[in-house]
Design brief:
mainly beta, about 10% helix
């Protein structure tokens, strides 16, 4: 991912185990890349392996527009048009893959693979800028009726 960036996903999530990754392009062991995952039913993490923000996302099973922005120093998580958390996040130090995985942080599909976040993913967008709150709200309003958002 370039700096700055925004990832937006319209999804109904159904995590059954935790380290449930919504998206990722990271290599944890070398501190590279970015990811978003749920570490528990009430904890969503967005950031890099070395720095991130966490929030209680509330109900994730309903259809929502999730937006994750990073402007080069500050990260934010939005649910629909509401900012849930913002905070300082350090740019990852290590190399990361050039591909972004949706619904998972990597492509490991082995027998003990539990890093995926089951759900229905309807629209996936990657921006090469950090959207402002007004732009996130504009996207939400534009997608609301087409995707049945609350």
């Amino acid at each position: 991912l370039s700096s700055p960036f925004t990832i937006s996903i319209i999804a109904s999530l159904n995590p059954s185990t935790y380290w449930a990754s919504l998206w990722g392009c990271e290599t944890w062991n070398n501190s590279g890349g970015w990811l978003c995952y749920m570490s528990a039913s009430n904890v969503m993490y967005f950031g890099s392996p070395i720095s991130g923000v966490t929030t209680d996302p509330g109900d994730v099973t309903g259809r929502n527009l999730w937006s994750f922005t990073w402007d080069g120093s500050t990260a934010a998580i939005y649910k629909n048009s509401t900012q849930l958390v913002t905070g300082s996040v350090t740019n990852p130090t290590g190399a990361h893959p050039s591909n972004t995985n949706w619904g998972a942080r990597h492509t490991n599909a082995g027998a003990t693979y539990t890093d995926a976040c089951p759900g229905t993913y309807r629209r996936l967008l990657r921006y090469t800028s950090a959207l402002t709150s007004a732009q996130v709200t504009s996207n939400y309003n534009a997608f609301k009726s087409n995707y049945g958002l609350p």
